[in-house]
Design goal:
It is built from 14 helices and 17 strands. The protein is of the alpha+beta class and about 450 residues long. Strand 11 and strand 12 form a beta hairpin. It binds one RNA strand of 90 nucleotides through helix 3, helix 4 and strand 7.
Length: about 450
RNA sequence: GGAGGAGUGGCCGAGCGGUCUAAGGCAGCGGACUUGAAAUCCGUCGUGGGGGUGACUCCACCGAGGGUUCGAAUCCCUCCUCCUCCGCCA
């Protein structure tokens, strides 16, 4: 959630940002509803906020009067005995009346606030000035390509897609997954299990070397935490599974459990930057996705992921530097695995609500002859921290403590095992159907090559 | 799962219907003393929001949400979390 003061001080900037992001806030008013849709959206927001402030002022005034009444009760004892009963009766009557009025106003104020925040929380974060503007695929900016895709033609064979490779080696079982849990669930088998664990072990090792504290996190979290991080657990297009008869959801990423860890806390500035890494299972409904792009392990309902998370100071460009660091770690991991990839600066129209800027790593996937997303890192600045109430006490140059500020929060994928497996199976497949194990993983997997049994 | 107990400012902790404008301590900050530091002493010090150009002022917050009352940190209800004991269990 953004600071509401932004709306009060510079509503024009909010409108411009909505336009840049093609961000729909109201169901009946969004991109495509005329050239001034963003300005009209902001007008509605301003009116909602104005209404809330007016009510708040009336409520405060009413409370002040009620407080005066009960304070007046103390003076009654000093009056003459004969006058006390009447004075008391008057105050009780007045207090009761104000209390009734206050109760009514409180309900209206609360409703107005909720209505405003419900809408305000759908307004996305501001956007980094360097983020390419646009909402089409070609609006993303490719920053660089690293590694050279293998020349399968020169090797004399046509690469298969990861599913064909894995099934031939008896590494995955989607049929049993479908029977037991439904489509897009799967079992990893044999060496794939070892590879899956080796990837986690490898990524955690890299994270630890970079100063991240390692965690295995809960796989469930409260809705309140999800909302704080900018996820919407309810609604027809939600990606989130929720647990019946409870306020719990299956997490779609450890970003939720790592980011939520520090909800409602005030940190000291010298605790920053705070670097956390976490392994969790990730569950996604993947509502409305299908097709070649989501074949096999590429898009599934459950996978394991090592996530990086950083809490940093809001001063200067601390979060931008950390964003670059997270991206560098992701690159280090995939370079270590020997997988060619490219780095994408995601365009404004494709950013998730909380993201100020986002970089994706896309691995080369020979099976489909295209790059496919394997990691993502977002700088969410203070957007998540505001709702989660995660703050720190900045130190002034003279060493004195200042008012708490919201931290900046960033997340990034170290390794999403299912997608990494896709990349490994496709890039490391051999003409004889075997798959070479990336050198880095060989010590943990315990073999150099996965062969047909 | 059952029975008890507890949640108060950054931290510890007193308060258990109006004197709370929440004691006291620790940490922090400013100052005195000191060549410097430590120790000691003095002062200062919660969070969020509204209004005002401003000195300032008003409102809310004692785990969360309801309730009783003219008035709630304090009494009642529900929930959450933690602790102790019992049961069950990988």
């Amino acid at each position: 959630m953004l600071d509401i003061k932004l709306l009060r001080d510079d509503s024009q900037a909010i409108a411009q940002n909505l336009a840049d992001r093609h961000a729909r806030v109201y169901a009946d008013l969004g991109p495509g509803d005329g050239p001034d849709w963003a300005a009209r959206t902001v007008e509605r927001l301003v009116a909602l906020d104005r209404r809330y402030l007016d009510l708040l002022q009336r409520q405060d005034e009413c409370r002040r009067a009620a407080n005066e009444t009960s304070a007046g009760m103390k003076a009654v004892g000093k009056l003459e005995k004969a006058a006390q009963a009447a004075a008391r009766e008057l105050l009780i009557e007045e207090g009761r009346r104000l209390r009734e009025l206050e109760k009514q106003l409180a309900v209206e104020t609360e409703a107005a606030l909720q209505e405003r925040d419900e809408v305000w929380s759908r307004v996305p974060n501001l956007t980094h000035p360097d983020t390419p503007r646009g909402a089409r695929d070609e609006d993303h900016r490719e920053l660089r390509r690293v590694g050279v895709p293998r020349d399968f033609a020169a090797e004399g064979f046509v690469p298969g897609d990861h599913l064909a490779v894995a099934e031939a080696l008896d590494l995955v079982d989607f049929a049993s997954g479908a029977k037991v849990a439904g489509q897009k669930f799967y079992y990893l088998k044999n060496e794939a299990v070892l590879l899956d664990l080796a990837l986690q072990h490898y990524a955690l090792g890299v994270a630890r070397r970079h100063g991240f504290t390692l965690h295995v996190t809960p796989d469930l979290a409260r809705e309140e935490i999800l909302r704080g991080l900018g996820f919407n657990p309810r609604g027809e297009s939600t990606q989130i599974y929720s647990i019946a008869d409870s306020d719990l959801c299956l997490v779609g990423t450890a970003e939720i459990t790592l980011g939520g860890m520090l909800a409602d806390t005030i940190l000291e500035e010298d605790q920053l930057p705070l670097l956390l890494a976490g392994v969790s299972h990730c569950f996604r409904t993947e509502a409305g996705s299908a097709g070649q792009e989501s074949r096999g392990l590429y898009r599934v309902h459950q996978f394991t992921k090592v996530e990086l998370f950083a809490f940093v100071s809001a001063e200067d460009d601390a979060s931008e530097l950390m964003h670059a660091k997270l991206l560098a770690i992701e690159e280090e991991i995939f370079q270590g695995l020997g997988i060619p990839y490219r780095v994408i600066d995601i365009a404004s129209g494709d950013l998730g609500g909380p993201a100020y800027r986002k970089f994706d790593l896309e691995a080369w996937m020979p099976g489909r002859g295209a790059y496919g997303e394997i990691t993502s890192t977002s700088n969410c600045t203070d957007y998540q921290a505001r709702r989660l109430k995660i703050r720190y006490r900045p130190l002034a140059p003279d060493g004195s403590k200042q008012k708490p500020r919201h931290v900046h929060m960033l997340n990034g994928t170290a390794v999403a095992c299912s997608r990494a497996l896709v990349a490994i199976f496709e890039n490391y497949q051999q003409a004889d159907g075997s798959v070479v194990v990336p050198e880095r993983l060989q010590p943990v997997v315990g073999m150099e090559r996965i062969r047909r049994r």
